[in-house]
Amino acid sequence: MGELVASRVELTYYTRSGTGLPTPQVQADGVAAPGKVQVIAISGPERDTFVPKDDLDSFDVQTVNANVTIGTLRPTILSMLPEVVTSRAGFAGKPGGTDVTLANGETLDFDDNKNPSSVGSSFSLTMPALTMVDAATGAAVSRIGKNLVITPDAPDWLSLPGMQRVKLSGRIYVLAAQTSAKSPYGVSDNIDSAPPPAWANAFPWSLKQSMTRSGDPPPYWMSITTFPQPSFYIRHQNQLWALDFEIEAVVTTTAYAALTSFYKPPEFEYLTPPANMAKALRSMQSWTPCRGTLTRKGKELCNGAQMLNCKFNLSGARAALATMGALPKAVSYDFRSKELSIELGPPSRFDTRSLAQRFRQPAQTNITYTP
Q1: pLDDT tens track for 212-230
Q2: CB-CB contact of 141 with 251 (8 Å)
């Protein structure tokens, strides 16, 4: 009857990986033999008849180190600005990584005194620094130890190690020289520089400022007496185009240099078998269901009901029968012959003729756990 004993028990179930992806697992005990492996599905999609279908909505995450120089971070910030994305689509990738400057608190100094003997003017313009604050509280967030998620449109359900939703604020700008040494006399006029590129003219700048510095004429113009002496003329002129931005972003303490897929958290969890369950199940089933009939004579055996609470071993026959531990299935007593007949065998619900029948589970054992 050893053919009715499983040589190996396998419990199949699902768990969630670190990214939330359902992952098949197997807990097993024993050595596989043909036709003697018992497979029990503890959890998995095939058993989720009564729970919501697992939503495998996913989001690909890729990050860059946020704690780098502004020059290194500039291409990343530009790619996150919708105005830049639109401009690049219409003007062949313009502005590129070097066409604009990402402000970081620097001061632009303008000095009109090119000629030592002239009287000019000078002034400074301080640019805002790049800032990062918590999106909910507005508290400042340090870029140290942070990685910036560069894949756009992070869903609300996304959860990453040390994740924080932030707002990045700052300015990108272009400083273009326009005119220099423009004299009202037409003397020593310099040619105006080239007009700005088409993308810059079409770009939705939030700030356009013309910075003109004027000063007294240089001494060599003092010799011109045929025209009235002007008091001022344009020495230098620059155009400042700037875009002030505020964008929402996600930072995390873990770096993902390559695209990594994260999956939406489930509405349910898969049932996981306890440790050593497969071993315990194989051990509990490692008995041979013995069948047969024992017949005994004698009036002392008339109380056959007591026999239903016993296990039976048979000595004096084959060695295996001495420890068979057979279970009584039915007891009958013949009053005329005073014979007690004990039918041995497993209970009816376990009375199978093949290992496949023994392994077959009724629908009641298909259990799904929902928290």
Answers
A1: 554 444 433 333 334 344 4
A2: yes
Measured CA to CA, the distance from residue 92 to residue 198 in angstroms comes to 11
Q: Are 10 and 37 in contact (CB under 8 A)?
A: yes
* Residue 287 identity: W
Give the residues across from 250 on adjacent strands.
165
User: Chain centroid to CA 102: how far?
Assistant: 29
Query: Taking a C-beta distance cutoff of 8 angstroms, is the pair 86, 194 a contact?
Result: no
Spell out the residues 6+ positions from residue 336 whose beta carbon is closer than 8 angstroms to its own: none
- Run of H or E residues at 87: helix 82-90
> How far apart, in Å, are the Cα atoms of 220 and each of 111, 117, 118, 121, 181?
20, 10, 10, 19, 13
Instruction: Return d(Cα 254, Cα 257) in angstroms, integer.
Output: 10
- The reported pLDDT for the residue numbered 151 is 92
Residue 140 is classified by DSSP as B
Name the packing angle between helices 70-80 and 82-90 (round to 10°): 80
- Which helix or strand (DSSP H or E) is residue 277 part of? helix 277-285
**Tokens, residue 302:** 């008339």
Length of the chain: 371
Positive or negative: CA dihedral 80, 82, 86, 87: negative
CB-neighbour burial class of residue 322 (10 A; exposed 0-12, middle 13-18, buried 19+): exposed
* Sheet containing strand 328-334, strands side by side: 292-297, 339-344, 328-334
In sequence order, what are the beta bridge partners of 170? 245
Q: Assess contact for 183 and 233: CB atoms under 8 A.
A: yes
Q: 3-state SS of 280-308?
A: HHHHHHCCCCCCEEEEEECHHHCCHHHHH
Residues 98-121 have pLDDT tens digits of 899 999 998 876 654 444 444 444
Residue 129 CB contacts under 8 Å (≥ 6 apart), including other chains: 103, 104, 105, 170
